[in-house]
Amino acid sequence: MSETDRTNQGGFKRAAKDCFSGTVGGIVQVFVGQPFDTVKVRLQTQGEPPKYTSMLDCVRKTRKEGLTAFYKGTTTPLVGVGACVSIQFLVFEFMKRFFNEKNKRPGQLTLPQLYQIGAAAGMAASFVFCPVEHIRTRLQIQTQIKKYNGPIDCIKKIYSCHGIKGIYKGQLITMAREFHGGACYFLIYEFLMQRAMLKEKKLRNELPGWKKCLYGAASGYGMWSSIYPIDVIKSKIQTDCFSKEKRKYSSSFDCAKQILAREGIKGFFKGFGTCMLRAGPVNASSFVAFEFAMELFEKI
């Protein structure tokens, strides 16, 4: 499938292909990244004094709970992240077509256009990312004492006590993360893909798989390097108490101030090493799976 073919198509059939391909990419992303994400979240949300001395110490202690501990809360992201990524790619492909129709040279999007496209995709997906990551995070930090018996039980208990607002705890900070994160994520990948197609004079589906893998990894590294401190704040906000009396942080800004006062700049980068280990393989596999699914669905 050529870039021009993809950008010129529209309607329900095109949207369905984008959506299903994004879902495939999201499911692959969850299976590859969940163990890394569990370690990352535990490092981000540990209190004072720290429960874990390092990333390896966190891995060892989590391992004592059994191998399944690395996949705590997987059901929620398996369904939710599949939906999130499908929304991301659906909006991304739609916005690409929108800007391509305005451009004189279809398939040649500018950096500002790519940033806007990625930001729109991230913002749209944030409304699913927030509740999915909220539930997953609360399940991931459970160790000996279990308050929730799985994602459904977690959703029921939070909703019964705090309503839909409780489910969407941390929505504003998630939107901020996804706006810039989505922009960087898709800008880097699409810029590299466009440059490779122009340089080699090849269509998208003619580029070798290793390049798509490399560009996907680069997009992951770029995205997480730019938004990691925001992600730390989000994790702390979402695992904070619901009641105002017991809450540690009154807002995202208050959370940032407290982290800076207590831990300094390094407090915004807890679990960063784990995240970088995760970013490459997870996002490489996600983009490769998406591109493969797109090519497959075009033949159906």
From TrEMBL:
GO MF term set: L-ornithine transmembrane transporter activity
GO biological process: mitochondrial L-ornithine transmembrane transport
Keyword list, A-Z: Membrane, Mitochondrion, Repeat, Transmembrane, Transmembrane helix, Transport
Residues annotated as transmembrane: 70-94
GO cellular component, one term: mitochondrial membrane
Keyword presence, Membrane: yes
SUPFAM superfamilies the UniProt entry points to: Mitochondrial carrier
Location in the cell: Mitochondrion membrane
Membrane topology value: Multi-pass membrane protein
Pfam family, any one: Mito_carr
Solcar repeat segments: 13-98, 109-195, 211-296
Keyword Membrane: yes
Superkingdom to which the source organism belongs: Eukaryota
InterPro entries reported in the protein's UniProt record: MCP_dom_sf, MCP_transmembrane, Mitochondrial_Carrier
Family: Belongs to the mitochondrial carrier (TC 2.A.29) family.
Cross-referenced PANTHER family: CARRIER PROTEIN YMC2, MITOCHONDRIAL-RELATED (PTHR45624:SF51), MITOCHONDRIAL BASIC AMINO ACIDS TRANSPORTER-RELATED (PTHR45624)
Protein name (record): Mitochondrial carrier
